[in-house]
Structure formats: structure tokens, C-alpha cells
Amino acid sequence: MSAATPSPTTVRADDLSAFCIAAMTKAGLSDRDAELSAKVFITTDTWGTFTHGTRQIRGLMKNARRGRLVADATEEVIADGPSWAIIDAHDGMPPAISYRAVELATAKAKETGMAYVGIRGSSHYGAAGFYANMIAEAGMFGMSMCNVEPCMTVPGGKSRILGTNPIAYAAPTGTARSIMFDVATSAVAATKIFAAKNEGRSIPDTWLVDEEGVPTTDPTIYPERGAQLPMAGHKGYGLAVFVEILTAVLTGSAMMSQVHSWVSDDDEPSDQGHAFVAIDVGQIMPAEHFHARMAVMSEEIKAADVAEGAAIYLPGELEWRHRERALAEGIPLPEDVLISLRGLAEDSGIDPADYGVNIG
User: Fold this and answer.
1) Rounded to two decimals, what is the model's pTM?
2) With contact defined as beta carbons under 8 Å apart, do 187 and 240 qualify?
3) For residue 26, how many C-alpha atoms fall within 13 Å in the half-sphere facing its CB?
4) Which CATH entry fits the domain spanning 1-66+330-360: 3.90.1010.10, 3.40.1190.20, 3.90.1210.10, 1.10.1530.10?
5) Is the peptide bond preceding residue 223 cis, with omega within 30 degrees of 0?
6) Which of 38, 86, 94, 190 could bond to 125 as cystine, CB 3.0-4.6 Å?
7) Which pLDDT tens digit goes with each residue over 157-183?
8) CA-angle at 150, arms to 189 and 221, nearest 5°
9) Cβ-proximal residues to 51 (8 Å cutoff; 6+ apart), any chain
């Protein structure tokens, strides 16, 4: 009989934030950069997207201690116009810099109707959806995307050519819940491949190819060999290229094989690129009219016939349900997140219990 999965440990969002801020400032971040980064990662945890939440902080702080990430760096706007800007992150803390880049994008969009802000010289910024939703909270339609190191092949290829290049959008609704969507352009998140590998399960042959480019159901070859497949074949491939253009080609960031993995033992900076697009819908039509039309669209989707035993959810609806419950009852952190947070505490020499965080 297999061992039962341990119950998640529940932690209050405010307590977790205080602990994470303390750990990040201990690694050299300013109070403000630590606060903004904690907001990004903890919001992501409340959505239930634990792969991109606080479990990522330990790796980023390791990079800060070894110099791959410059804890006290200040980003620089190196070129801009009325409705666009390019920022050099100078290898600073990606979530904090991205947060300020979104603020710049929304400020420009208020003036011109829409704006693009790109970042170069950056690293892992967390969940793309956080920044898209941040734009939606400003009453605008938002997009967020990032390029990453190659781990995915393309139709007809067998080597690693592109990253999983995530892309997200969010639309305001006039309520506390935006319509929000955040996906990688690969067929599946790498964490699902690793889970199957650890559990001794096979995988669908649409997830990976082996070193010869042949689809495989064997997850044990990855990441040492093989490559991930794009979602929906050429469609995911096309979207990955779209992201690469806006985040890397246009920003001057590293492209494709030039990008260094932020989790590798490589001493070189990652030099990833990010891009944010804000469209001020209130300048195209009255905001109330837009919200009303969003409601009509949403109601028609929700009123559609449902297959037996199934349910229809709007994009982002499950994440908002998770967040509302997490804020009321605490965040149910799974074991892999707890392991990462324990390591962060050990690295930092900080006792999480001092901040009300009891993670064992």
C-alpha cells in the first residue's frame, strides 16, 4: 500500500509574507523590493499556482548570494517613447522590477490608450498571470510574457529550440475577479513530467520526444535527454515564437540558445526578457459598457450546456475561488513548497516560527 499524501500545512498569507520579506532582505534585497516580490509570490500561492509561488524564492536568493542576481541593482529605462519603454534590469530582482514595469506601462497607457514595456537583463519573474492581472486591476486589458531557456522542440525538430515561453492575459470586469489566463506554450508543465518520473508512471506521447525526435511515453529521459513538445503542435510553436519576439528580439535580451537557465549551476546571468502590454479599454468605450459586455459574454459561457459530471469555469475562476478561501482560512501549502521554505529558512538563518509560520 502506498503512503498517504500528507495533508497540506496551512499558513496565513500575512505571516508567510513577513517571513519571506525577512529572508529576502537577509540576502541583500531592499525592503521595497522584498515587499513587492513577496506580494507577487504569495498572491500566486493564494491562487493555488504553487509551482510559481514562494517555492521559487529560495532559488532566486541562492542566485543573489552567488552574484547571478544582483540584490541591490536598480533597473534603468534605456529607451522610451509616449507609449513604449525598454528597461534594463541589470540582473536585479525580477518580480520587483516587473511590478514597476507594469506601473510604467499602465501610466503610459493612461496617456496614449495603450503601451508596451519590455525588460532585458532579467531572470525568473514568477507567474506571468500576476502582472497581467495587475494591469486588469488598473482597469485595463493586460498581457504579460517571458522567454526562458530552450527546453522545447518544434514540429519537425528533435533538439531543444525554444523555451516554454509563458503568456498570460487578464481583462477587467468591474468586479474583484478579472478574467485571467496564464499558460506555458509547451504541451504540459515540466513539473507534471517530473511528477510522473518520481512516481514511476508513463506519460502521454504528446508531452516529450526522445533525442531522435520520436514521441515517447517515458518520462525518465527528461531533463537529461529529449525535449518537451509545444502545446497543440504548430499552434503552440507559433505562440512561443510570438513571445520570443516581444520579450527578446524587441528588448535586446538574450534569445533562445543564448538564455541561461536561472536554476542551473551556471555562473552567467540568465538575461531573460519580459514584456507587458496594457490597453486602456476605457478610452475605446466607456468602462461601464466594457464591463457590461464582459458580463454578457461570461454569462453566455456559464449558461452553456454542461457534459454529465462536468462543470464550466471562466478563465481564472478557479484561481479566484482558491484565493478567496486562502485569504479567509490560510494558504494550504503542499509538501514541495514546505521543503523549499524550510531550505530558505536554513539558508537565511531565520526561524519561520518567529513570524508565525509553522512549517515543520
Assistant:
1) 0.95
2) no
3) 18
4) 1.10.1530.10
5) yes
6) 94
7) 999 999 999 999 999 999 999 999 999
8) 60
9) 189, 191
